[in-house]
């Protein structure tokens, strides 16, 4: 399975898609609650599904519909999930106002950090030394933190805080090349920001606009809950409560495909198109998927040739209220900010 694309949402169903053909190849029922966030482990073996209070880990290559491990400890909806590059630990965020770091073999909590309000999302920087989070303070703020490793514990130092949207933020995500930060919001948009190096400081002395705005992706009919970058950082898939997942070409800021299949709002998406053999990209825009030379095709023409499904009807759904909701990204090696597991 070279390219893994999954979506889920309020219909309690996880859908696996054949990325190039657009065919739904497998479904997993999640009856306990809606699925808030999906995350694929870097080795493509497991899918983490965040729900109400718990995170369930599913074997991607197995036909077993049951979870192989359940992480329990949050007191509210789990809103964000991210994995260490080797899968040794996992970080989660929750509406209970905490960010937790878990040891993935045992499913036990190693660290707990507290926000002043419900945390909508958390993402690990590929250097393994920074965490980016957004909370439900109501002002659309993004927070950037530095992980400072000491002999006995890991401390979090503030790097930056900025206002990314005028409405509630549902998602923050770093691109695999670490040059872009994507944010999703209740304002019906996703935004792309240029990532820059920052130095620690006091909260009242942090730069007001640390990441310049590169693009605003419009065209969603309701809240944008989630997004996923392609391995080459050239494409973004967004999930919206209007039932659709959309594939965007970032260079032109245009929609080149839409995925339709959920009966209620699509609120989370996970994509892993890294090549297991080369460490590169199998790509959602694979050159071998169509014989026509790429130089002779536009982004939309390439997608038409690859057979991504277009929507067949207009759907109506009630826009979900404030709740919250990663996709795996290629994470680099660095000292793990928790005690080593024996």
From TrEMBL:
Spans of repeat WD: 71-112, 162-196, 217-258
InterPro entries attached to this UniProt entry: MLST8, WD40/YVTN_repeat-like_dom_sf, WD40_PAC1, WD40_repeat_CS, WD40_repeat_dom_sf, WD40_rpt
SMART domains in the cross-refs: WD40
Keyword field contains Cytoplasm: no
Family indicated by similarity: Belongs to the WD repeat LST8 family.
Keyword annotations from UniProtKB, A to Z: Repeat, WD repeat
Region Disordered: start-end pairs: 278-342
Designated name of the protein: Target of rapamycin complex subunit LST8
Keyword Cell cycle: no
Species in which this protein is naturally found: Parascedosporium putredinis
